[in-house]
Structure formats: structure tokens, C-alpha cells
Amino acid sequence: MIRWMIVIFLALVLISWFTPLLGKLGFGRLPGDFRFRLFGREWFIPLTTTLILSGVASLIARLL
To answer: What keyword terms does UniProt attach to this protein (predicted)?
Structure first.
């Protein structure tokens, strides 16, 4: 269980780092991606983008 939590956390961190590149591709503006301002900082929670990218990664892993 804790391993999955770490994997999900790392995936969210990596996606947030690649947000500018993914934004140019259309990711980050999908329904289910949350962007809000709190305490003077913009927060981004890419739930739908994470699901789509993990599905693509899963398909690539199965094909290899």
C-alpha cells in the first residue's frame, strides 16, 4: 500500500514539473485537472492527466 502511495506521489511531482510541456500538448486542461490559488500560490492537481499518462505507460509496458 505504501509503495503505491509513493508511486502516485512521484507521478504527480513529475507531471507538475513537466506541466509547461504538457500544456502545449493539451494536457493539464482536461476535465478533472484541478488548478486553484491558495495562500498566494497556484496549486495544480492533474488527476485526469495522471490517469491518461499512466494508461499510456501501461500500454507501452505491455507491448514491450
So the answer is: Membrane, Transmembrane, Transmembrane helix
